[in-house]
Amino acid sequence: MPTDLLGRDYETFPAPEPLRQHGPARIMAMCNQKGGVGKTTSSINIAGALSQYGRRVLIVDFDPQGAATVGLGVNANTVENTVYTALFDPSVDVHDIVQHTQFENLDIMPANIDLSAAEVQLVTEVGREQILASVLRQVRDEYDAIIIDCQPSLGLLTV
């Protein structure tokens, strides 16, 4: 058992067993109506830790500010297809939207300011609560975890 600087024993989390195959992913949403509480930071760090243990992780940036996208090294302003495209254009393959990052086993579905228009469009959509779920079903079997980094509100997108 490891010891701290004062010589006291402490427990650590055991390393997870290696996987033989990936998927289906557990889907987690990081939500809070207040901004600045660490949703994006936690999302990126949890995803990074899981990916270092060999888990395939997808972060879905569901915030029009695109902080998770930028935090993983993707320029949100130059991305042609984003999570907004995945929600409203069924002709686009979700695999074309997912961006590989410079980190092994860690991908992102990017977002930018275009996502702010989604709230208005979702008002009239039938089954709007299931649109993101149907998008994620297309890639769920390829990942071990999908982390949705939500915007700081309790609007339609978060619901």
Structure, described:
This protein has one domain (26-150): Rossmann fold (3-Layer(aba) Sandwich), CATH 3.40.50.300. Helix content is 26%, strand content 14%. The chain is globular and about 60 Å long. The longest helix is centred in the first third of the chain and has 14 residues, at 39-52. It is an alpha/beta fold. A hairpin with a 5-residue loop joins strand 3 and strand 4 (106-109). The chain has 6 helices and 5 strands. The chain has a 5-stranded mixed sheet with strand order 1-5-2-4-3. The N and C termini lie far apart (44 Å).
CATH superfamily: P-loop containing nucleotide triphosphate hydrolases
Give the helix/strand class. Answer: alpha/beta
Query: For the largest beta sheet, what order do the strands appear in spatially?
Result: 1-5-2-4-3
The protein's oligomeric status is: single chain
Q: Return the CATH class.
A: Alpha Beta
Helix content: 25-40%
The SSE order reads: EHEHHHEEHHE
What is the mean pLDDT? 90
> What profile does the largest beta sheet have?
5 strands, mixed
* Overall number of structural domains: 1
Low-confidence stretches: none
Query: What's the number of extended β-strand segments?
Result: 5
Q: Which fold name corresponds to the CATH topology?
A: Rossmann fold
For the record, give the distance between the C-alpha atoms at the N and C termini, rounded to a whole number. Answer: 44 Å
Shape: globular
Number of helices: 6
Share of β-strand residues = 5-15%
Rg, Cα atoms, Å? 17 Å
The CATH architecture is 3-Layer(aba) Sandwich
